[in-house]
Structure of Pimeloyl-ACP methyl ester carboxylesterase:
Amino acid sequence: MNAFQSGLFLNRIPYVKVGSGQNPILVLNGGQAFVRRPTPARALRDAKRISRLLPRDRAIYILGYEPYPPANYGIGTIVVDISQVLREEIGPATIMGISFGGFVAAKLAAEHPDLVREMILMVSAHRFSSEGRRSIDRQIECAWRGDFEGFLDEFGLVFRRPWLNWLLRLRLRQERTRLHETMNDPAIIVRGLHAVAGEDLRRDPAWLTTIRAPTLIVGGTRDPFFDVEAMAETARMIPCSQLKLFERETHMLPVERPRAVAKAIKTFLASHQESRNGDLLQTTVPP
């Protein structure tokens, strides 16, 4: 079994590494990386879950986000940091962006094509759905007020399977008395959310056409944050892309269908030479 190693890039960006070898994979985590207070146990738990989706014969770096982001924090700031990490520490890599991390991955691929060999957008797109944007706005409002219960209520039905939603609600009820201990500082949460919500991501997606990395977009047809329309638009705009949809799955697709997701990633990485031809392949996976 591969050992997990943790550390800091640029003396401020936390990461967990697993595996070794050439052709590294850099994972840009989702928004939960700045919503909860960062702890070594939480970082290791996330790394174990994410690494199960990826090939075991490659070095995998799972990145968090700056724990004390500056007031002007945004996607551009994060892209500058990640590009520096790649140039100075890792080298060109396959980039996987999960949810929020997908925004960063896409901008990185567009602005630094020499650093991105392949790209995977996991339950993500270049913009939120209308419902997803409304949810982010509500999360920002709750975070500003310090209303962590209201904030977490936005995630009350994120799973497809009812029993998982029941367990999530039970866990949230059990945590209500100590939410201020487990949740991050409201200002940090808001800055992280504003990093994407503060940009007009719907305005003009033409920048996606500059991405040259073979790209796989994986999502569920019932994802409330990134709907099929948003993911399909991303796939149409990126010249060399594949869109793989899982019927009736939600934003928690990687958690509920890890084996199927891992298989899709493995197939994509093994055949990325074909995806360089610029063909768009759209497939729908049954439940």
About this structure: Confidence is low (pLDDT under 50) at residues 274-281. The first helix runs from residue 32 to 35. The beta strands are 4-9, 13-18, 25-28, 60-63, 93-98, 116-122, 215-220, 241-246, 281-285. The two ends are 31 Å apart (CA to CA).
